[in-house]
Structure formats: C-alpha cells, structure tokens
C-alpha cells in the first residue's frame, strides 16, 4: 500500500466520520427527544408538577404593586392624595429606592417630632445638670460623661435599626448589597412599639 493510497483512505474515513457525526443527535437533541417521548400521553406516566411562581408575601398588609404610585405604600391622605411635586417617586424608580425614601421620611419625621417637643419642653423646664437657656445652647452645657453616654445611646439605636432593616454588605466586586433594604422589611417598622400603638390588621395599618 502506497502512501498515496493511505492518504486517500484517511480522507474517506474522515469524510465518513463527519457524515456520521452530522446525523448524531447532540445532547440537547437527545434531551428534547426524551422529553417529547415523556410528554406523550400515557395513563401510567404521571405528569411532573410545575412549581408555582413565587408569591410576594405581604408586609404589614402591604404588597408592592409597580402599577401604583409609590408601589402602593400607604400614606396618601386627603385632601391632596398622592402628592409628589418634586418627583421623588417618578416612574421607573426601583422598589428599593422607594422603600429607602420612605425609611428616611419616617425616621427623620420621628426625630423632628421629638426635637420639636424637646425645644419647647427644654426651654420651659430646667433640665438635669442645671441646663437652661435657649434650646440651641443646651447641648454644649451637657457634661462630658453624660454627652458620651448620649452619643453611645444614639449610635446603638442607629446600629440596631441598620441590622433590622438593611442587608449586610458583602463588599465583594460588583456587590449590590450596599445601601439595600431587606425584602421583608417595612420602612420604619423596627419592631419597637412599647405602647402597643401599631395596628393589628392590614386595614388599620394602612389608614392610621
């Protein structure tokens, strides 16, 4: 057998293998064929159950709805109704951003209400450590040990709020956990209700 004959035999064998491979089913084709056979009607073969789509669990009776302003968060009251002239909750905003805006609104609103009472009461009644005078000048009158305790208390409260409502940042490259609220967290609801003022049902929570 000459080299030329061996070369021709090799070419023919390669061509035959290529033809066979062309008609050999790929893994995807095999799986598709198997699935097609399994999908054929057979009384003895049970149909596999298709898992249901995940259901969004309500949080304090609220289920986010992208078709509603502010994802349907309660808070719009008469006579203005939904009022957003600046456009913070414009169309296309993400649910996490809406929840962060509501978180900032509720928490800063609570601090502002306490500060308003503190201004009036602090100037009307002399406080501990003989603190008196205009409210703007009272913080600097607080003794250093008491000021340190007050600072630690505020820091502890903020850390507690962060652990309840915010996802722990992973810090890895491309991570999207920074500045992200938990999916099951309702803005402002950190579980602190010593007087039991929080409504027990969804309707009361949405209207109070």
UniProtKB/TrEMBL annotation:
One Gene Ontology BP term is: photosynthesis, light harvesting
Report the Pfam families cross-referenced here: Chloroa_b-bind
Subcellular location as annotated? Plastid, Chloroplast
GO MF annotation list:
chlorophyll binding
Any one GO CC term of the record: chloroplast
The record's PANTHER family line, in alphabetical order, gives: CHLOROPHYLL A/B BINDING PROTEIN (PTHR21649)
Family statement: Belongs to the fucoxanthin chlorophyll protein family.
What protein does this entry describe? Answer: Plastid light harvesting protein
